[in-house]
Amino acid sequence: MKYILSLFVLITVWSCDKSVLESVIEPYAPAKVDEAAGNWKTFILTSPTEVTVPALNSDAAYKKEVDSVKVLEITADQKAAVQYWGAGAVLRWNEIGRELAARYNIPPAANAAGVYPVPNAADPLADPKFPFANPPYTARALAYLSVAQYDALVSAWKYKYQYNRQAPYVLDATIKPLLPISTMPSYPSEDAVVAQASYVILLAMFPGEGPFLAAKLAEAKNAPLWAKVNVTSDVVAGANLGAAVAAKVMARAKTDGMSASNNQAIVPDLIANAKKVGLTTLWASQELPARPPMLPNYGAVKTWNFDRATLESIRPAIPYLPGSTEFTADLAELQRINESQTREQAAIANYWADGPGSYTPPGHWHRYACEAGVEAKYSEVRMARMLAYVGTALMDAGIACWETKYFYYSPRPQQFGLKTSVGLPNFPSYTSGHSTFSFAASTVLAAFFPEKSNAFNNYAQQASDSRVYGLIHFRVDCTMGGKHGKAIGTYAVQKANADGAQ
Predict the structure, then answer these.
(1) Of the candidates 460, 470, 367, 455, which has an alpha carbon nearest to the alpha carbon of residue 422?
(2) SS (H, E, C) 297-311
(3) CA-to-CA distance for 351 and 334, rounded, in angstroms?
């Protein structure tokens, strides 16, 4: 009860606030440096040494670099940057990714002709801006970001312990670093690896943000120099490695089918299929003018942790049909909420709305993941690993959920006289995206942090319930979406259990 009351107060305070708030996090020494991480299995790289990191310079050259760091004068602004990035490069770039998702989560408006223009990647800052960072787009962007960070860091760890260069403050005890000291070798710089890999991915996902991202990149690569934990050759090697790995990750992104995800030409066939499998009432846009369905072909995008045959085999069964006893009961539940919604139900619906101007449910769960990783004092490579499995599970959840939505093309409650105060999604109802995303992520996080499994499950259940409280979904949408999400998350957990990091 104490948990419910405290959460209700928190939700009440946040429910009307669309700003992206982040915790103040101080730099910390990781609980483990994960010396063997260079042997962990990667997502894209065939081996940790697929990208070559050149051998070290001579001892004399390194000593000269250390001497230059030793005499470096640090300004107040540079010290502040060190503290910011010192909380974790993986963490900070994930925050930046979520910030951009929130900034670009703006549905295009209809023009004077009553047409909804499509964002143009070739002219990303034109109206409407590219991308429209809806939940599937955000899930995909954060998945690729985390995979690039993880693969690049596994490779970095391999080379760190191969070359075993001591950090400047180990070589010269008179150097006082501005961050917690570590026993980890310094070459290549993990901060530079993450920074360059993240920059490549986020620039591809948000091409209108070049100047912003370039400024973040420059600061992130300078921070370990200002902190006196790296020298220039550490940073250069790290940046080159990060860029090369990110290019390989982006090669997958360019061929994963996302470019065809908004193909409206397939809609008539989707409608015909829904009728063929037994749907009697189909979803229709409730906006004026009618808005084309969002990403009708996203379900065809390539998954990470299972194949296409598996995706089809775990697709939820047909939803309740209008007129059935089960459908009538679900509709009656929504009608009761519509007539007498409680303050707590309204607060939960608003808190989990994650609509325009937010970083959507996938971003919400990435934030929970980051907070758990910081609390556990994860190393950079372990943080990236955890986020990669959370991120790929969330992207898989979006793909599988959207495939289900357009397979059945089921109607929303608004087509039966109900109204919502938390925004009306422009795609079919069954199954609930919030439920599928949330239970996929909570399943993965519970495996990484078993002591928090009850809390993550409670969050997921509340996210799922919020769509009923907000009159966005029928109960069956949420129940079946939750079961689907758990199955999807389990595939990510199985893959994590076999990557050698246990």
Answers:
(1) 470
(2) CHHHCCCCCCCHHHH
(3) 19
Q: How long a stretch of residues is the chain?
A: 502
Q: 410-420, pLDDT tens digit by residue?
A: 999 999 999 99
Site of tokens 């700003």: 19
For the chain, give the mean pLDDT.
94
State how far the alpha carbon of 328 is from the alpha carbons of 162, 331, 409, 476, in Å: 65, 5, 19, 11
> What pLDDT band is residue 388 in, cutting at 50, 70 and 90?
very high
CA nearest 294: which of 467, 499, 102, 137? 137
Residue with tokens 């007129």: 323
Taking the CA atoms of residue 259, residue 146, residue 137 and residue 449 in that order, the dihedral angle to the nearest 10 degrees is 140
DSSP code per residue over 143-180: HHHHHHHHHHHHHHHHHHHHH-PPPHHHH-TT---SS-
> With bands split at pLDDT 50, 70 and 90, how would you rate the model's confidence at 454?
very high
Distance CA 84, CA 61 (A): 30
pLDDT value, residue 57: 87
Instruction: Give the list of residues 6+ apart from residue 467 with CB closer than 8 angstroms, or none.
Output: 349, 352, 432, 434, 435, 473, 477, 478
Task: Calculate the CA 430 to chain-centre distance.
Answer: 23
- Asked if residue 353 lies in contact with residue 423, where contact means CB atoms within 8 angstroms, the answer is yes
Contacts of 106 (CB under 8 A, 6+ apart): 128, 129, 132, 356, 357
The pLDDT, as a whole number, for residue 421 is: 82
Q: Judge contact between 377 and 31, C-beta under 8 A.
A: yes
Q: Spell out the residues 6+ positions from residue 121 whose beta carbon is closer than 8 angstroms to its own.
A: 130, 131, 207
Burial of residue 252 (CB within 10 Å: 0-12, 13-18, 19+) is: middle
Q: Which amino acid is at 280?
A: T
Which candidate, 420, 253, 434, 450, places its Cα nearest to that of 346? Answer: 420
Q: Rounded mean pLDDT of 58-72? A: 95
Q: Which pLDDT score is estimated for 14?
A: 39
| CA atoms within 13 A of residue 188's CA, in its CB half-sphere | 31
d(CA 61, CA 483): 58
Q: Is it the case that residue 13 has pLDDT exceeding 70?
A: no
When pLDDT is averaged across residues 147-164 and rounded to a whole number, the result is: 98
pLDDT for 233-244, tens place per residue? 999 999 999 999
Residue 327 has pLDDT above 90, yes or no: yes
